[in-house]
Amino acid sequence: xxxxxxxGGIVGCSSAYYLSERGADVVLCERSxxxxxxxxxxxxxxxxxxxxxxxxxxxxxxxxxWDRFEEEFDADIALRRSGYLFLVRDEDSGDELAETVAMxxxxxxxxxxxxxxxxxxxxxxxxxxxxxxxxxxxxDGFADPHLALQAFAARAREVGTDVRxxxxxxxxxxxxxxxxxxETTDGTVDADFVVNAAGPWASSVAEMAGLDLPISPERRQMxxxxxxxxxxxxxxxxxDLDTGSYFRPEREGAALxxxxxxxxxxxxxxAFDQTTDLDWTIEAVEKASDWTTYFGPESRIRRGWAxxxxxxxxxxxxxxxxxxxxxxAVGFSGHGFQHAPxxxxxxxxLVFDGEPSLVDVxxxxxxxxxxxxxxxxxxxx
Length: 381
Hints:
Layout: E1 2-6, H1 10-22, E2 25-30, E3 45-46, H2 53-67, H3 69-73, E4 84-88, H4 91-106, E5 112-114, H5 116-122, E6 133-137, E7 141-142, H6 145-158, E8 162-165, E9 169-175, E10 178-184, E11 187-190, E12 193-196, H7 202-208, E13 216-226, E14 237-240, E15 245-249, E16 255-259, H8 278-291, E17 300-311, E18 318-323, E19 326-330, H9 336-353, H10 368-371
Parallel strand pairs: 1-2, 1-12, 2-8, 4-14, 12-19
Antiparallel strand pairs: 3-7, 4-6, 5-6, 9-10, 10-11, 13-16, 13-17, 14-15, 15-16, 18-19
Helix pairs in contact: 1-6, 1-9, 2-9
């Protein structure tokens, strides 16, 4: 069985690895270089604190891989378990957090509802008086996206994946029975299955297969800051859900600072500004300073970058065999890095078994948008 995987980000490399490991003849086509897309521009978050059961399940399945990644892949990905801390400012949102924690606990996630004062114990720089409630899970954390992606790519090659960089897929070929292969800038590749793991280019690849998927490439920014007060590495990735502002510790007291402030827009993945906007950077640090004591006037910006989220209307991915032989693993809305291990296994099950068993993703079909079956993911970062 031959499978063409379109896209050399972490979802594509994970899919290629698990498919090859199970015995498929896999060709991975990446239009540029491994790591040239969105994966290495992510914050590297790994968490199970989502607001919907399917995202929690994807996280738990992925975390089983992340937990043993160094041993299984013989690669140090700088995995750090400092937790995630979510904060809200009003009572109604606090009630929603309580319901979400109950759901997470039912699935085995050790998250807990905290008072603002308890939240300040895990994030000492928090201005606790601004908030009404918080949730925290010590099992959440983050890893180095570059190291993780390269480890997946290297292992995929080791188990037989033909990784072709600088090769762009220009058309998806098919007949009445379904997909038959792809046309590329390096010639035709026959295939029994084509996996769309193209990230911000996913909708364009889907169009080649006659599909119209509601996936929007949206620009997101990140700043590396030397805070006035150093952020200890034990501090969790901390998010003010009401403003969208968040930060996480880097090494030696530095921090990554980000957030969604209305300035991020739909972008052309082939031509977008990969540097940060000065106005956004100032706003990001000022917002973080509003609700923490770390980012005072002596904070200094070190650098920054911008990348793309592939966003769906409900902030959930599309994972399914949408037409015969064409598998979509797209639209992760900023969560593709952390859910990549589970997604690669699900793609493999779809190809070999015809249906997934690792996680019930029956609700992540493309038809849900037209049929009104969407449920929004609230815990977006």
